[in-house]
Amino acid sequence: MPDSAVTFAPLETARFLLRPLRAGDAAELHRLVNDWEVAKTLARVPFPYPRDLADEWIASTAERIAANEAYHLAIARREDDVLVGCCGLTRDREDRSAELGYWVGRRHWGQGIAPEAAGRLARWALANLDIDRITASALVDNARSATVLARIGFRETGTGAQDFLSRGGAMPVRIFEAGRADLAPAPAAAVPSPEPAPGGKPILLVAAVGLIDPDNRVLLARRPEGKPMAGLWEFPGGKVHPGETPEAALIRELKEELGIDVTEACLAPFAFASHGYERFHLLMPLFLCRRWQGAVTPLEGQALAWVRPQKLAEYAMPPADVPLVALLRDFL
Ligand SMILES: Nc1nc2c([nH]c(=O)n2[C@H]2C[C@H](O)[C@@H](COP(=O)(O)OP(=O)(O)OP(=O)(O)O)O2)c(=O)[nH]1
């Protein structure tokens, strides 16, 4: 498949670009991976690694990205595009999960490349693919890889055995897993201005809206990478700032996030969510709105979906929203 068939937009980290592999990467990829110290840590890599296999594997990664099945990417230095390793995710659609893997060429070890690259790929995947958890494994004799997974935020969940081509058979592995809560930004970012609450959790006041179009469909927005609960779908809205009313907060948020103008008279109070998260208690009035000015536009790069009431339950949403979805479905 030609390179142009791959539409995956490269992911940036501070130092690297995670981009689809290209035919021109084959020689360097072969040089880096045909190294016992690297190959012995990888389940699906034979040793010695035939040169032709690099070409075949690169071609297969393009096909699997295009099919949205697996994302095996080059880790390339931003300043000179030099290939330093690979990281990849393979989806398991049945299970809403994906498996993470990575390797870095020996000459590039000791620079923290694996946590930077694999951590970005894992956070991107939870925010953009319909998955809820990521699994990974590390050979029991590969303490370095276990450290990388722990640095990204993975939890160790058990042990098992896995076939390793390079080792000629089954080997003992440590198994790791991460979900949204594990890879979320630091808690301080999640609660910037909570009400003081002596002895209890702070109350976070968030205003949200069910925008309803003439076909009776409801707008959901996907929480972007970098926010807590990234990848879940929510009602547009945001935190009520000190001194603001919920209505004023919504009018501001809808302008900032969706580029639409809403008046207070068009915001009808509908229901509220009251939900205890680990670090704060969310109090969220939900308004309904059928009239606004301007075209709904995702100004913050967030995915949007107009959803029929009967289909709302098919979208993974924050736990606070579950009772609201049931009320809204019955009402519409
Ligand atoms: N907007 C919205 N937030 C929700 C919903 N359900 C739910 O649990 N929340 C939670 C997620 C967050 O903890 C909080 C909203 O905070 P946020 O960080 O997204 O708000 P914001 O847009 O003001 O964000 P920022 O400017 O601080 O980045 O409310 C929902 O349906 N809509």
From TrEMBL:
Gene3D superfamilies registered for this protein in UniProt: 3.40.630.30, Nucleoside Triphosphate Pyrophosphohydrolase
Keywords in alphabetical order: DNA damage, DNA repair, DNA replication, Hydrolase, Magnesium, Metal-binding, Mutator protein
Domain N-acetyltransferase: 16-178
Keyword Magnesium: yes
Every Nudix hydrolase domain range: 202-330
Required cofactor(s): Mg(2+)
Pfam family for this entry, one: Acetyltransf_3
EC number assigned by the record: 3.6.1.55
Catalytic reaction list: 8-oxo-dGTP + H2O = 8-oxo-dGMP + diphosphate + H(+); 8-oxo-GTP + H2O = 8-oxo-GMP + diphosphate + H(+)
Entries under PROSITE patterns matching the protein: GNAT (PS51186), NUDIX (PS51462), NUDIX_BOX (PS00893)
Signal sequence region: none
PANTHER family recorded: 8-OXO-DGTP DIPHOSPHATASE (PTHR47707), NUDIX HYDROLASE FAMILY PROTEIN (PTHR47707:SF1)
Family as reported in the entry's similarity comment: Belongs to the Nudix hydrolase family.
Name recorded for this polypeptide: 8-oxo-dGTP diphosphatase
The organism's taxonomic lineage, starting at the top: Bacteria, Pseudomonadati, Pseudomonadota, Alphaproteobacteria, Acetobacterales
